[in-house]
Amino acid sequence: MDRHLGEPHKFKREWSSVMRCVAVFVGINHASAKVDFANNIQLSLTLAALSIGLWWTFDRSRSGFGLGVGIAFLATLVSQFLVYNGVYQYTSPDFLYVRSWLPCIFFAGGITMGNIGRQLAMYECKVIAEKSHED
Questions:
Q1: How many structural domains are present in the chain?
Q2: Could you tell me which residues are beta bridge partners of residue 48?
Q3: Which of 13, 31, 78, 104 is the most buried (most CB within 10 A)?
Q4: Does the model's pTM come out above 0.70?
């Protein structure tokens, strides 16, 4: 996606960076479930700041931010649809049938999946380049 938008990725990509991004995402997800906050607004704002921090630390691209926002919007919409139709249910929804912090988790997941995808794409390009040198 970066090549199609004409936006090369600025950071050196290696698996250790991708794994750190995955670890931060798991930490954000764990915090949403285990850390007690005074209210849902405080939890949502904290997770939003952590999710944007994840993007800033591991991505900083417009395409990555757009991917995260797009995934957060679509996944939250699908979750609302599933809850509205009785397929799934939250114990205490506080934002249009779902939890208010859910888009933050989806955003962070989109950034994490984008980083994994970039690393796999670089690996694929490397394998293709090595095969062309062998021929």
A1: 1
A2: none
A3: 104
A4: yes
